[in-house]
Amino acid sequence: MENPTALNLPQVEPLPESTAKFFDICQEKLGLVPNVLRAYAHNIDKLNAFSGMYNDLMLGESGLSKLEREMIAVAVSSVNHCFYCLTAHGAAVRELSGNPELGEALVMNYRVADLSPRQRAMLDFAVKMTEASARIEEPDRQLLRDAGFSDQDIWDIAAVASFFNMTNRMSSAIDMRPNPAYHAQSR
Question: Among 126, 144, 164, 167, which residue has the least CB neighbours within 10 Å?
Answer without folding.
Answer: 144
